[in-house]
Amino acid sequence: MTDSSFSGEYSTRAVYVISVAAELAGCHPQTLRIYERKGLVEPARTGGGSRRYSDDDIAHLQRIQQLTEQGLNLAGVKRVLELEAEVSALHDQIDEMKTEAEHAVAETHRQYRRDIVPVSQSVTVYQRRRRS
User: Fold this and answer.
1) End-to-end C-alpha distance for the chain, whole angstroms
2) Looking at 37, 55, 71, which one is the last position of a domain?
3) Per the confidence metrics, is the pTM higher than 0.85?
4) Which of 15, 125, 126, 127 has the greatest number of C-beta atoms within 10 Å?
5) With contact defined as beta carbons under 8 Å apart, do 95 and 51 qualify?
6) pLDDT for 74-112, tens place per residue?
7) Given CA atoms 60, 63, 65, 67 in this order, what sign does their dihedral have?
8) Rounded Cα–Cα distance for residues 48 and 3 (Å)
9) Are residues 49 and 17 in the same domain?
10) What percent of the chain has pLDDT over 90?
């Protein structure tokens, strides 16, 4: 399904068992267990306790793999991921504040337009009286 309204649901839907998730992420299932123990990933659990990974989890695991391949240890990876999440949240906050500021500026401009009096209504012409 390519409907954009469903894309979020499918990316967060936990459907992959650990062996499939490990293969998709390019690592060993035991590595995923280590990542979970270190708090780098939190897979969903079935009623029986089996791990299930979503497409978002797979993308997250691939990012972890990229960082470890660049030489970071797992503590460093965790910190980088925390900082990336913080930066993303701050970007969202900035976007929200920009939108609020744009609305405030537009409202101020609407106020100015209401307060403006046409020149023809505001100009009074005074003529000097001639002295006789």
Assistant:
1) 93
2) 71
3) no
4) 15
5) no
6) 999 999 999 999 999 999 999 999 999 999 999 888 887
7) negative
8) 32
9) yes
10) 67
Q: How far apart are CA 30 and CA 14, in angstroms?
A: 19
- 30 and 94 co-located in one domain: no
Residue closest to 37 by CA, chosen among 23, 58, 51: 51
Domain-located, residue 124:
no
61: its two tokens: 């695991």
For the stretch 43-65, pLDDT in tens is 999 999 999 999 999 999 999 99
Q: For the chain, what is the radius of gyration of the CA atoms?
A: 30
* Domain match, 5 and 61 both: yes
pLDDT of residue 129: 73
DSSP string, 53-109: B-HHHHHHHHHHHHHHHTT--HHHHHHHHHHHHHHHHHHHHHHHHHHHHHHHHHHHH
pLDDT tens for residues 22-42?
Answer: 999 999 999 999 999 999 999
SS (H, E, C) 20-43: HHHHHHCCCHHHHHHHHHCCCCCC
